[in-house]
Write a structure and sequence with these properties.
mainly beta, Neuraminidase, four-stranded antiparallel beta sheet, 1 helix, 11% helix
Amino acid sequence: MIASKFTLKIAFLSVSSFVFSQEVSLKNIQKLTFGGDNAEAYFSPDSKKLTMQVTNPSIGAHCDQIYLLDLTKKNGTTKDLERISNGEGRTTCSFFMPDGKHILYASTFESNKECPAKPKPRTDGKYLWPVYAEFDIYIADLNGKITKKLTDSPGYDNRLFLRMENILFSLHPEVEIWNFGGWISMGKI
């Protein structure tokens, strides 16, 4: 029985290496982040930059903050991350605006400059996204200067969706409809 399991493993690896050697879409794979918790990374319109949510104490990000990574730099490291958000509160859901010069994201910083407490973990070990009523939505330039505040209401202002010429977001707990650039949508989170 042991020999047959071994034989099956060898056969599987042989077939896998042949099948995947034909793969043309996954070439030049490069690791972009090193350490910390990195999430929700999205490309700029020209695909030369990423915006992402980062918690990494080694770079001073003790609470989710929005960072920019220039993909044109060769052999980039964590030190190449440039913070876009102001380092206060918690941030999430960043996207490039269609002009490639501004980033849309949500933050709690105006309510409290400290990082809000995380909720207790689920007993089943599954991921739990904290919902903070203090989130508001901002647009900042690539140097981190906030150029516009889009929301100023109580409730969970978050879950941003961006399409090259349109901004669409929903608010919780009430269903609200936002129309930007001709998009109309409604729903509950």
